[in-house]
UniProtKB/TrEMBL annotation:
Organism of origin: Streptomyces sp. R35
Signal peptide limits: none
Domain Carboxymuconolactone decarboxylase-like: 37-118
Domain of life: Bacteria
Protein name, entry field: Carboxymuconolactone decarboxylase family protein
PANTHER family in the cross-refs: 4-CARBOXYMUCONOLACTONE DECARBOXYLASE FAMILY PROTEIN (AFU_ORTHOLOGUE AFUA_6G11590), CYTOPLASMIC PROTEIN
Listed GO MF terms: peroxiredoxin activity
Length: 175
């Protein structure tokens, strides 16, 4: 189980980080974990609680789809790598962004979770449509659905933290 626990720390401005042979210049934005440690720890706890009882493959699919929608390259890179390490196929990883056109790659349960992820991530556009919610409710027991929703909330929060602090894809500090 991989969480975002250490993935949003920063070094001082102007330093470089080597990741996979590439050197990337750091920016001058704040270190969120250091600047708001109580908030950061609470978010880590929320993230860990949200995952409880969920299939790890489903967790990564949800996190990948929300990261696509939020244009969060940092989290997208992290979660596609985590999914690969967990045994996810390249075919499915490539199809997450276009899952509606490639439904045969995903189970009906995964499709319901991906649709719910999209609706919650884009909640300002149209709310969460009743049919999307009903489809998810048909595939998940109430407690599990609550955890799926909580996971969607947490990845959207992590995406916003990473984007706000200008995290650079490929610089996953968990390693």
């Amino acid at each position: 189980m991989t969480t975002h626990a250490t993935h949003l720390t920063h070094t001082t401005a102007g330093t470089t980080v080597s990741s996979g042979g590439a050197t990337v210049a750091e920016n001058a934005r704040l270190d969120f974990a250091k600047s708001a440690p109580k908030v950061f720890r609470a978010l880590i706890g929320f993230d860990a609680a949200a995952r409880e009882g969920l299939d790890p493959a489903l967790v990564e699919l949800i996190q990948i789809r929300a990261s696509h929608l939020n244009h969060c390259a940092y989290c997208l890179h992290m979660h596609t790598n985590d999914a690969r390490k967990a045994g996810e196929s390249e075919d499915r990883l490539h199809m997450v962004a276009v899952w509606r056109e490639a439904r045969h790659f995903f189970t009906p349960r995964e499709q319901a979770a991906l649709a719910l992820t999209e609706a919650v991530t884009r909640v300002a556009d149209a709310g969460v449509p009743d049919d999307v919610y009903a489809q998810a409710a048909a595939h998940f027991e109430e407690q599990e659905l609550a955890h799926v929703l909580a996971l969607i909330f947490t990845i959207n929060t992590w995406n916003r933290v990473a984007l706000s602090t200008a995290k650079v894809a490929g610089t996953d500090e968990r390693r």
